[in-house]
Amino acid sequence: MNQELFERGLQTRREVLGDAYVDAALANADEFGMPMQELVSQYCWGDVWNRPGLDRRTRSLLNLAFMTALNRPHELKLHIRGALNNGVSKEEIREVFLQAAIYAGVPAAVDSFRCAREVFQQG
User: Domain count of the chain?
Assistant: First the structure.
């Protein structure tokens, strides 16, 4: 494991998703799951999220579309919170889901709207 990239990834992960989520993810990782936490923190958050080609806001918008297309509600809720932290508005989130309805399917987008309402109600 590249410790420097891991630490940088943890920092980015915390800035986007919040300390509480990251702390819980790490605390709940056992011997089986910790390698996945390390991979996610180092590769996804340390390397890809910190590349200079796209800003965090744009990456968040893309993730909302991807999670909708892949029908991953748990990850979608997490990334809706992250998108809000990255300055994406509720209106922009709605537009991503409407766009995704056309290309990923209406049922997937309906579920995404449902997930967003849950996140918005939680504050």
Answer: 2
